[in-house]
Amino acid sequence: MDRISNLSNEIICHIVSFLSAKEATVASVLSKRWQNLYTIIPNLEFDNTLENQGSLKDFLNGLLALPASSRIKNVSIKCRGRDGPNRHADLNRFLCNVLKRGVLKLKLDIWVTLNGGYSLPVEIFTCKTLVELELGSILQIDLVPENALLPALKTLTIDSVRFSDQSGCAFQKLISSCPVLVELGILNVEWEQWEWSCRVSSPTLERLTINHRYYFAYIGNIYYDMEGITFDTPSLTNLKYYDFAPQSYPMVNLDSLVEATVGLKLPLHHAWTREYARHGDTIPSVTNLIKGLRNVETLNLTCTDTVDGPLHYNYQLGDEYESDEVNYYEDESESDDDESICECLSEYSFLESCLVKTVEITEYSGTKKELEHMKHFLEKLSCLELVKVCSNETDDEEQIQLRTNLLNIPRSSKCKIEFEFIPPRSFL
């Protein structure tokens, strides 16, 4: 009989208390005796927006009643509104307890007032077992301890979180404490409200998603003034980036990037060139960002701002731009009175040396502005082999007209145009 089997139940339970939920699961197959000594809980969830959920205090008491050897794999807590006078204290006691139970995935959806004096427990930044961590929402992080270390964390999502650290950059401290981080999501962000170094840096990061809080609901009245954002992510292969253009991108290291989706919009009091600028407008420079995309195999452009501005005014990609595929999402709400698309695209000299073979157009409606886009793509992209056009047009005559207009545009003899007409979704 092995030595471990001779140990007392108390000692075995003490050993298990140091294991992650995953390790405890593996250990439980050693013998039936081990299986009877401790419990592995797959999922632990609390949501005070549901009826009959009970209070956070009651939930905490139930957790504290579990033996110390009990392991928990996944924890999700959704706590909104007031839930007793000691809500913050109860919440942190809960978090500290589950973090000692080998938790692998922790999802927090807690709403607190930004001036409410709430701080996450420091233990959340030193957990050795966490593999996935979601922090949100309406949450402010003022301090990340100097000894912060999340050695197993591979996926980090921060949703509607602000960072405010008078003594340094709490955001970069958090990222630096994740030595094996692979995926980072920065959702519903308001950079302009952060106190930080304006730097996203990680040597291991492979997938990055960023979307500004007001990007998808922008109606032209957002004041946004960011001096610059740096991306130092040499291992990044996939980027999804929806934001308002800052003044500049001081440094961009995206050498491993394979696929990128980029949407940049102009906020209030900004213009791509002085020709269209009013007095006092900011002229953003996104040269370094676009040059950082030079090695991508698939590039998705999600709004006409991205095409009209960055791709023309701020740089010349030349022979360095070797993307195999460009996907362009047309926005039929764009006005033909915007900055002249003819002027924007007429000198797209980099397109002639671009190695793009496939262009995908979605939500195409055949407006004059969209047709001008297509004309320059087809005329300038000498290596183009396939253009996929997807439209929501349902009228037969309009479909014929749309086809005719595109097929009459001069293009390479090897270039094919495919059409797909999909009825718009009904929300009834």
From TrEMBL:
Residues 349-420 form the FBD domain. InterPro entries: F-box-like_dom_sf, F-box_AtFBL13-like, F-box_dom, FBD, FBL60-like, LRR_dom_sf, LRR_FXL15/At3g58940/PEG3-like. It holds the Pfam family LRR_At5g56370. SMART domains: FBD. Gene3D superfamilies: 1.20.1280.50, Ribonuclease Inhibitor. Transmembrane segments: none annotated. It comes from the Eukaryota. This is Predicted protein.
